[in-house]
Amino acid sequence: MTDENDFDVLVLGGGISGLTTAWQLKTGGASVGLLESAESVGGCTRTERRDGFLLEKGPFNVMVRDPSFEDLLGDFSEDLSIVPASATAKKRYIYRGGRLLAVPTNPVSLMTTPMLSAGAKCRLLSGLVASGRSGDTEATIEQAATRRFGREVADTMISAVISGVFAGDIARLSLPACFPSAGRVDAAARSLLGYGLASAFRSKRDGGARRKRRWRGLVSIDGGLGALTAAIGQRLGDDLMRGTRAEAFRATASGFEVDARCTDGSTRVFRCRRLVLASSAAEAGRLLEPVVPQAQPMTDLIESASLVVLNLGFRKGDIGHPLDGFGFLVPRNEPDFPLMGCLFADSVFPHHAPPENRLLRVFIGGARDPNAITYSDDKLVRTAESALGDLLHVTGHPVLVDVCRYDAAIPQYHVGHAEKIKQLRAAVAQQENLHLVGNYLEGVSLNDCVRLATQTAHGLLRKEHHESITAPSPDSATATHATHRRDSPNGTRDTVDARPLGSPAVRARR
Ligand SMILES: Cc1cc2nc3c(=O)[nH]c(=O)nc-3n(C[C@H](O)[C@H](O)[C@H](O)COP(=O)(O)OP(=O)(O)OC[C@H]3O[C@@H](n4cnc5c(N)ncnc54)[C@H](O)[C@@H]3O)c2cc1C
Question: Does the Cβ of 409 fall within 6 Å of ligand 1?
């Protein structure tokens, strides 16, 4: 680095996407700076401890599916303790006709559940065996689910599950964009039962060659998911600049200049060779507008759902329901019920509430009620209390209330999303050394954000290494190499041999 405002790579946005990108670059030997507009890191990921409760205001758990997330947790294993979800969490409820009905998990419970009519059950079973007729057009989740399992299953079970992930409308969400592997199976018009059996056989056959998973299923962290983002921020040290908002950037002969405004009102100009935008789609569009004018109309097309998360703590004796499960979700064929769903937080992670209390996490808004974030705290709490009262046999008022609003926070992968992202990426690629990460690109879950951020960082390290050996500088023979070992997504060991981006050779080219 030539001065404290110069970096090889600058990352704009300190949510999980930006933090992971910066962390991977730093461990790969890069000189990296991360600008975060807020005073704390984490973006959507917000945890607070209050009165013995552990309040997850944003994400609640992670389904660890990708080796890059395992590696990230592994990097912080000395600072953080991973907590698996309790066995109780396997039971899930759906709200139906004023009652909570357990989601069937085996053929017997499926045949006996009052959640579906006899006709719907037969249709669901035949849909599992039959090959689906899939057309050429990109299917919505509603179209694929109705074609495969029938209207009642789509309206009741599928709409509820999807609202728990995307807070969205299955009539508009794209199956291949939201769930790429399900989209591939559907497009191949294969029988789901046949596919399931073939996958089980393949996984048994390849079991020995696969990388051993350290964590399975849902996990959290002893101090909440905010402890992970805080730990990454801490290890980034002075490379993380909190309270520093990127206002604009421009391309220069040697890379980019970024104008930033700090919370104390001061301004700074940063210089970098490579720039990674790790904000929401809307903010990326705003920042890109002067440099890649075609980008903003594309990011404007990506809608995002708003929602409110209420954490409500109760005295144990004030809730008559055993809360024996993960929680419940509400299907779209229950339009008069005002909640999207409710998680039984301490049933999943007992450390989220003191022993004498229970903690409920209530969701209001999404496609069900897009205006919910404009309601007063009082109205939101009253709505939740009246909806939960009879359902969970609640006899007292909450002893703890926390209301957290998320405005346009969950990108909606509507039909055409993949094409929009393809065009956006093509436009951005015209600016060499400009990159995008974030939850509007290749998956909204923490796992997906970490996967994309890790791939992007490793790609940058490889690119840098390639450039440093194909464009030798006078001192390149003596410049040191950082060799960083990583497990690649396919489970094999992958060596990222990267010359430190701040090495003399790199500085000479600035
Ligand atoms: C209520 C809720 C519950 C969720 N539950 C789960 C869950 O249980 N499990 C799961 O896997 N996923 C969950 N998700 C999804 C997941 O949490 C998000 O998709 C993910 O955290 C997004 O991370 P990100 O870094 O891409 O974006 P963000 O978290 O939005 O971070 C973007 C960051 O960029 C900063 N920024 C923006 N503009 C600038 C600028 N100009 N200059 C500097 N900084 C800037 C922002 O301040 C912010 O910190 C949930 C999401 C929400 C909203």
Answer: yes
pLDDT at residue number 478: 36
**Ligand 1: residue whose CA is nearest its atom 35:** 13
What would the pLDDT profile of 227-282 be if each residue is shown by its tens digit?
999 999 999 999 999 999 999 999 999 999 999 999 999 999 999 999 999 999 99
Domains of the chain: 6-43+222-302+415-509 (3.50.50.60), 47-66+305-411 (3.90.660.20), 116-205 (1.10.3110.10)
- On average, the pLDDT of the chain sits at 89
Task: Report DSSP state, residue 510.
Answer: -
> What is the H or E stretch that residue 55 is in?
strand 53-56
Q: How many CB atoms lie within 10 A of CB 225?
A: 25
Q: Which of 10, 39, 44, 287 to mutate to test the pocket of ligand 1 (most atoms within 8 A of CB)?
A: 44
> Looking at 170-319, which runs of residues are DSSP E strands?
218-221, 240-241, 244-252, 255-262, 267-277, 304-315
406 CA from centroid of ligand 1 (Å):
10
Which pTM value belongs to this model?
0.90
Per the DSSP assignment, residues forming a β-bridge with 7 are: 272
Indicate whether residue 226 lines ligand 1 (CB < 6 A): no
H/E/C letters for each residue in 74-89?
A: HHCCCCCCEEECCHHH
Q: Does 490 have pLDDT greater than 60? A: no
Least confident of 16-25, 283-292, 380-389, 468-477: 468-477
Nearest CA to ligand 1 atom 13: 59
